Structure of HTH-type transcriptional regulator CueR:
Amino acid sequence: MKIGEAARATGLSAKSIRYYESLGLVQSLRRDNGYREYDSAAIQELNLLARARRVGFSLEECRYLVSLLNNQSRHSADVKQQVLQKVAQLDEQLVHLTQMRNTLLELADRCQGDEGPECAILQDLSSANTGMRFTLVEDENG
Amino acid sequence: MKIGEAARATGLSAKSIRYYESLGLVQSLRRDNGYREYDSAAIQELNLLARARRVGFSLEECRYLVSLLNNQSRHSADVKQQVLQKVAQLDEQLVHLTQMRNTLLELADRCQGDEGPECAILQDLSSANTGMRFTLVEDENG
DNA sequence: CTTGACCTTAACCTTACTGGAAGGTTTAGT
DNA sequence: ACTAAACCTTCCAGTAAGGTTAAGGTCAAG
């Protein structure tokens, strides 16, 4: 298999495959003309890279997963732990994105959204960020 | 205000402030010794940048928000639309991350997680990804 | 007079690629 | 045999949003 076929087979771009090779994540044989050649074991590795990337693993994490794939004395517990750790990371991200989303919705709710220039959103975002839910008010004895 | 104070006041790093200036997102006056000087209007812009970044706006989107902040004939509807568009983007991301998370949990469920090398996760990830729930079948009339 | 805390610019590192330049190879068609 | 399309090769540059380090100027205190 040449790189273009390998790309179509795995859903990666040829560019990405060369990039992964430059990082030592996969190897390729070479034909006499210099073209890269991929066998079924290489295609397996590329599939792992493609799919692991799609579910959120970084290339360094993929490097570890590929090493496990090629290690016949691996423990499946190590693979599982890596996956569950990634789930925990995604959960953190989800919490963060949800907070951002809710903040934006609260801001949008307080904005008229008309032809006028007064805008609660801009007022809020451009003022000092206390991070507080309540506003400080001046004392009577100032 | 010097850049360090401005940084502490807004929660940005001095480095980021210089970077934003290099992109033309904010301006600064200069003292005789070359130090940057920030007035309250500049601090407002920096606050907008800091907080807009935190809720997910890109620097290019921030550029637009700053231009609205400085445009007295703006329409608050434009600000609101930008915010709601960002909410929609975050919603897309949330869907995507949630799918990734669920895929990973399904994979983890099918893995023993023991000392042995057999691992449903690696098997799944390294095999061809149809990504399909249904398989394409050839037409009778070709 | 020196130390420490500031400030300045410039240049490189990061992640995970994508695009393009400049050129070699193969294949199909005429 | 010639040519054009469709492959392939390497290398260089750029993206977002800064962080890090280097090398040096400025300023206040002790």
Remarks:
- Chain A touches chain B through 60 residues (CB under 8 Å).
- The beta strands of chain A are 29-30, 36-37.
- Residues 13, 15-16, 19, 23, 33-35, 53, 58-60 of chain A lie near DNA strand C (CB under 10 Å from a C1').
